[in-house]
């Protein structure tokens, strides 16, 4: 059986993190979202993959190549224009045979759910229960069949949603070839699904595990979930005087210097320099070639490769891009004074603790303060002693 993964989109709601990488390549527990998804399918027994790529496709191709490193085979199809999910699937015609799995590339699912799904008769839609169905395609079910599908209704008819996981056979291709442009100007898979629903053909399969990656703060939830089942591997050098509690993975070439205190679960990449006297708290993922230095504290955050947080810094519940540098004393707040829910540009994160979203190659001067819910665009320069809040566009120069 083949598995088709749709990985052509940019992920505009993830900006500025997707400025230099496609959404599916954003790291969670130090591995791209797409890798977690592919590995789950491989563990379910699937060895042949078709990636539909587009935005940032070079990074995907360079990372996964032909799949040999994972003992699978990968073929690529390029969707030149983002013309919708039906158009993306149409590009794979002739590359699948019999039943095949189709998944959106921006989520995380479990191998056990995929095993059960693949044993069913096609067509099947994976569904999931959520407390905010208005953000997704809402489905209604009866006797194991999908009876209705409505996109992002403000008055949803149920709390079950389309999870973007499907089992199809070759009969799907004539249906998507017959789909016309939607009101949004795209060729949408949901129009083909509506035809199946009207014929009473589309079965439902509830997924036990489903993590959606719609917004940056969703990355933190997924990061916490995946780190909680971490099998620690320590390949780096740990000096005397380091304290490690819980599950902590340390990559090859990394040095953890004396006085550092690490509480798992957390993961530290390759060729990093940690400490001396750094404090890394649970839920933190530090990418390759990072420097976390003296008296710097990290908590429940994602730090992408080649970022330096070297002296007297604090980051909590934040996502930081690659190639950033934090001047001494720079701190990212993560709690409101009234302990209320934090919003980012008017949109609720649903979280009482959330720091900032920092793009790639952002340079902070010393003693900067960043307020909760702040977004800082890539390639920005923040002058010493600056107070930063709100939405900062890419390549902004902030003078104190």
Describe the protein in words.
- This protein is α/β, with parallel strands linked by helices and 400 residues long.
- The protein has 2 domains: 2-214, Spore Coat Polysaccharide Biosynthesis Protein SpsA, Chain A (Alpha-Beta Complex), CATH 3.90.550; 226-398, Hexapeptide repeat proteins (UDP N-Acetylglucosamine Acyltransferase, domain 1).
- It is 15% helix and 32% strand.
- It has an 8-stranded parallel beta sheet with strand order 15-18-21-24-27-29-34-37, with no helix packed on it. Strands 16-19-22-25-28-32-35-38 form an 8-stranded parallel beta sheet. It has a 7-stranded mixed beta sheet with strand order 5-4-1-6-11-8-12.
- β30 and β31 (347-348) form a beta hairpin.
- α1 (33-43) packs across α4 (111-118).
- The protein is globular and about 65 Å long.
- The model has no long low-confidence stretch (mean pLDDT 92).
């Amino acid at each position: 059986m083949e598995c088709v993964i749709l990985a052509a989109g940019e992920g505009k709601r993830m900006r500025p993190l997707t400025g230099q990488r496609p959404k599916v390549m954003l790291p969670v527990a130090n591995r791209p979202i797409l890798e977690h998804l592919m590995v789950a399918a491989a563990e379910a027994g699937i060895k042949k993959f078709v990636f539909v790529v587009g935005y940032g496709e070079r990074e995907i191709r360079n990372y996964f190549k032909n799949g040999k490193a994972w003992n699978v085979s990968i073929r690529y199809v390029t969707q030149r224009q983002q013309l919708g999910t039906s158009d993306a699937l149409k590009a794979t015609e002739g590359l699948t045979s019999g039943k095949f799995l189709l998944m959106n590339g921006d989520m995380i699912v479990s191998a056990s759910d995929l095993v059960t799904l693949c044993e069913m008769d096609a067509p099947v839609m994976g569904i999931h229960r959520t407390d905010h169905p208005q953000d997704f395609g809402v489905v209604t079910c009866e006797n194991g069949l999908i009876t209705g599908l409505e996109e992002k209704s403000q008055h949803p008819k149920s709390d079950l949603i389309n999870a973007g996981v499907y089992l199809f056979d070759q009969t799907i291709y004539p249906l998507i070839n017959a789909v016309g442009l939607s009101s949004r100007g795209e060729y949408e898979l949901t129009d083909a699904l509506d035809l199946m629903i009207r014929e009473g053909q589309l079965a439902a399969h509830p997924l036990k595990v489903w993590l959606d990656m719609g917004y940056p703060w969703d990355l933190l939830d997924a990061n916490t979930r995946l780190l909680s089942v971490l099998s620690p591997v320590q390949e780096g050098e740990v000096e005397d005087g380091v304290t490690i509690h819980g599950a902590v993975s340390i990559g090859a070439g990394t040095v953890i210097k004396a006085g550092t205190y690490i509480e798992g679960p957390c993961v530290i990449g390759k060729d990093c320099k940690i400490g001396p006297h750094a404090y890394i708290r649970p839920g933190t993922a530090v990418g390759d070639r990072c420097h976390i230095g003296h008296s710097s504290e990290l908590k429940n955050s994602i730090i992408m490769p080649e970022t330096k947080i070297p002296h007297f810094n604090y980051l909590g519940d934040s996502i930081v891009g690659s190639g950033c540098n934090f001047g001494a004393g720079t701190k990212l707040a993560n709690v409101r004074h009234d302990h209320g829910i934090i919003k980012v540009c008017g949109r609720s994160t649903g979280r009482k603790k959330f720091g900032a979203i920092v793009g790639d190659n952002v340079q902070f001067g010393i003693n900067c303060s960043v307020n909760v819910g702040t977004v800082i665009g890539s390639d920005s320069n923040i002058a010493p002693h600056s107070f930063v809040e709100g939405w900062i566009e890419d390549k902004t120069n902030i003078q104190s």
